């Protein structure tokens, strides 16, 4: 049983993180891990066999909120309290008023025991999208759209995610905005997760704009996934109409002070790991 300290991992530990993820039938997700390493604190615990026994990532957004992700424990060490120990370490070392995460069915009981409360459900719709492309009302974001993107994101998410938002142009394969004069009414992106095109974030002032962004961003012929907050039946209807099907549902959870955001305008997260 691993009994060493929880330590802060560096990018050199990425291959070990990926071996651990594969042990839990998660993909290697190289692009995602690298982005998470660049914006968050990755913690891990070593097993006696020299392999990582578990990980957790805390990505703090200023003093308000941190997103917890990649809670993984190697199968050979599960159900011995390691998941709880890693979570407590991340919680003790994150100095934000609130924490948020997206829980799988395996993680939810653990998080509930630690005091997290469910605040929403998110269903992953996956498949190869069919049907017409582009409404054309959105355009690729330019460098001078970034302040407007960050302002809208902060208002809707409820914390200043400056570091993550600054990274979006390189993390995302495409990043679009819908312009309204000098302002924007929404932004949306796609990024590549192994063979999958992930559609997210989609954050906008209204559902019409969100639907426009998604229609413009859905790639033809590619395996695509959209993690849709269940508060948005119009998006679910669009995903179904375009041939995507529900794959799994996760629970959005919070801890600490209620997060002062507006989930009605958060249509899909950047990634479940980041909110
Ligand atoms: C979710 C996950 C991280 C939990 O890790 P873990 O180390 O098994 O977690 P813990 O041991 O702290 O708790 C798990 C269970 O073991 C129980 N447990 C803890 N110590 C125990 C012990 N010494 N003896 C027996 N049971 C014990 C806990 O009470 C808990 O039970 P419950 O879930 O029925 O309430 C792990 O299952 C995992 O990596 N799953 C795949 C990836 C995943 O889904 N991660 C969550 C992403 S949101």
Structure description:
The structure is a single chain. This protein has 8 helices and 13 strands. It has helices at 14-23, 30-39, 82-92, 108-113, 146-157, 162-171, 207-217, 233-241, and strands at residues 6-8, 41-46, 52-61, 65-73, 98-103, 117-128, 139-140, 174-180, 183-193, 196-204, 223-229, 245-256, 266-268. It is globular, with a radius of gyration of 18 Å. The chain has 2 domains: 6-96, Gcn5-related N-acetyltransferase (GNAT) (Aminopeptidase, 3-Layer(aba) Sandwich), CATH 3.40.630; 124-268, Aminopeptidase (3-Layer(aba) Sandwich), CATH 3.40.630.90. Strands 1, 2, 3, 4, 5, 6, 7, 8, 9, 10, 11, 12 and 13 form a 13-stranded mixed beta sheet that branches. By secondary structure, the protein is α+β, with helices and mostly antiparallel strands. The model has no long low-confidence stretch (mean pLDDT 96). Helix 2 (30-39) runs antiparallel to helix 6. The structure holds coenzyme A. Residues 24, 71-73, 78-84, 103-104, 106-107, 109-110 line the site of coenzyme A.
Sequence-ordered SSE layout with sheet pairings:
Layout: E1 6-8, H1 14-23, H2 30-39, E2 41-46, E3 52-61, E4 65-73, H3 82-92, E5 98-103, H4 108-113, E6 117-128, E7 139-140, H5 146-157, H6 162-171, E8 174-180, E9 183-193, E10 196-204, H7 207-217, E11 223-229, H8 233-241, E12 245-256, E13 266-268
Parallel strand pairs: 4-5, 10-11
Antiparallel strand pairs: 1-2, 2-3, 3-4, 5-12, 6-11, 6-12, 7-8, 8-9, 9-10, 10-13
The protein binds coenzyme A (COA).
Coenzyme A binds next to strand 4, helix 3 and helix 4.
């Amino acid at each position: 049983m691993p009994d060493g300290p929880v330590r802060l991992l560096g990018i050199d530990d990425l291959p070990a993180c990926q071996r651990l993820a594969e042990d839990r039938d998660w993909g290697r997700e190289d692009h995602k891990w690298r982005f998470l390493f660049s914006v968050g604190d990755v913690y891990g615990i070593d097993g006696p066999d020299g392999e990582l026994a578990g990980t957790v990532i805390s990505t703090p957004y200023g003093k308000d909120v941190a997103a917890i992700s990649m809670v993984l424990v190697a199968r050979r060490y599960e159900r011995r309290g390691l998941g709880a120990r890693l979570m407590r370490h991340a919680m003790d070392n994150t100095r934000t008023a609130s924490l948020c995460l997206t829980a799988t069915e395996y993680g939810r009981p653990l998080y509930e025991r630690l005091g997290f409360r469910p605040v929403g459900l998110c269903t992953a719709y996956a498949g190869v999208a069919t049907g017409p492309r582009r409404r054309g009302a959105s355009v690729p974001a330019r460098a001078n759209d970034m302040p407007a993107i960050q302002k809208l994101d902060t208002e809707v998410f409820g914390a200043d995610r400056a570091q993550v938002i600054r990274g979006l142009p390189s993390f995302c394969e495409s990043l679009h905005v819908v312009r309204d004069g000098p302002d924007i009414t929404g932004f949306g992106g796609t990024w590549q997760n192994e063979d999958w095109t992930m559609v997210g974030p989609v954050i906008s002032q209204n559902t019409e704009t969100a639907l426009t962004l998604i229609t413009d961003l859905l790639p033809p012929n590619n395996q695509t996934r959209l993690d849709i907050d269940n508060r948005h039946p119009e998006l679910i209807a669009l995903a179904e109409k375009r041939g995507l099907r529900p794959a799994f549902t996760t629970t959005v959870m919070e801890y600490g002070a209620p997060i002062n955001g507006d989930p009605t305008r958060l249509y899909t997260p950047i990634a479940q790991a980041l909110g």
